[in-house]
Amino acid sequence: MNNSAIKICLQDSTFQKTVMDNGVRILTENLSYLKSVSLCIWVRTGSRVEENDENGICHFLEHMMFKGTTSRDALQISKEIECVGGSLNAFTGKEATSYFCRVLSDDLHLGSDVLTDMYLNSSFPESEMKWEKQVICQEIHQLEDSPEDYVNELFQMRFWQGDHFGRSILGTIDDVLHFDREKLIKFKEDHYGPLETIVCAVGNFCHEDLVDLVKDGMGSLKNGSPRMQQPKPKNAPGALIQEKDLEQVHLCVGVEGPSVKDDDRNTAYIFNTLFGGGMSSRLFQEVREKRGLAYNIYSFYSPYSDTGVIGIGASTEPDRFEELLDVMGQETLRVADTITGDELRNAKNQLRGTIIMSNESAESRIGRIIKAETTYGRYISVDEIIDDIEKVTLEEIRDFASRLFSPAAFTAVALGQVPNSMNILSYFNRL
Questions:
Q1: Domain extent listing, the chain
Q2: pTM (2 decimals)?
């Protein structure tokens, strides 16, 4: 097999990349001071590629990949990894699905064998499908019973109302119960192709050893149906109030933000940090420390390949909800004109520390490596990320905030004891 490879030597690690003949990419970073390896098989297939009758199938497929292969049953899959002290897990997002394990360096062969066996040879037994549907139904009910999580789910659905991007990753109970084995197999064949697949590992091991372990299996992957270019999600600003008998009212408010490729992405990270990214942030100080309005108050920035969301979330007692809205609205609408140089410097320092410390986690390194590869097609060092953040000026971040919070751009969702007639958007559209 004629695989091409590039090698970049860093101070504390060695990054290597091998591209197999069928297009599967193998990315590794060697950290000689570790005694373990974190291994991930990532596929560029998430809930946004699902058709109308497939909502939730990506997540269901992820669950079923653990339920047996042609050579292992479900118990063997988990037992083989756990018996050597390792761990095995997966997650599904809007744009990707990831399967990962962590094992001691001496057990790399076992970890790679189990993970590639799952990815390539899952058999989707009918008996397991029956019970896993019930498990996912329980997961959906659990989400609905967790107000902090559920308000964010409702926000995503309202933010992209009418667009595939806004549908639940978990799907609906009706959709999940109607999936069958043939549909699952067809979806995997169509969407788990080699050009969409990345194998990434970080830890103490040899790149060539990993390539040798996975090349035969991953080299057998063949392309399914051609991947259609997904249209950019359409944001639909508006409000949703869902009345529910809860002790608190949970709120989520947001606007469309930069994508991972946008020139404003680093400005967005800085803005999010100073606005609601910690105990010293504006929102935390004004809402919690000065007024005691909420225990939970935060902002978030969620970038995707072609869009993004910047938002704020909080919860408070029903009789203080209007006061919370008033304070959050005021802080949001005045922030563009009042960001100071000290706030900018502090936010940059906070981000710098967070990035450097997260780099001590092998799992975080995997996330950074895959994000750089899928977004820019190359390795991006921590130093380069920090340098880009340092370049953001006070004028740029003020201009960004001014453009971000333009009138009529907000989506707001409230969950709890709130009258349906309440105009929650009015607090954020008073310019």
A1: 4-218, 238-428
A2: 0.93
Are 142 and 134 in contact by the 8 Å Cβ rule? The answer is: no
The total of other beta-carbon atoms located within 10 Å of residue 253's CB is 25
CB 8 within 8 A of CB 15: yes
Which residues are known to be catalytic? Answer: 62
Using the predicted structure, report yes or no on whether residue 249 has a pLDDT greater than 60: yes
CATH homologous superfamily of 4-218 equals Metalloenzyme, LuxS/M16 peptidase-like (3.30.830.10)
Work out whether the CA dihedral 159, 376, 359, 395 comes out positive or negative: negative
Instruction: Give the C-alpha separation, 67 to 420, whole Å.
Output: 44
Does the fold of domain 238-428 match that of domain 4-218? yes
Mean pLDDT of all residues in 306-314: 97
Give the position of tokens 């997650």.
91
Separation CA 341–CA 339 (nearest Å): 7
Residue 305 neighbours by CB under 8 Å, 6+ apart: 95, 259, 260, 261, 374, 375
- CATH assignment, 238-428: 3.30.830.10
| Of 302, 50, 349, nearest in space to 172 by CA | 50
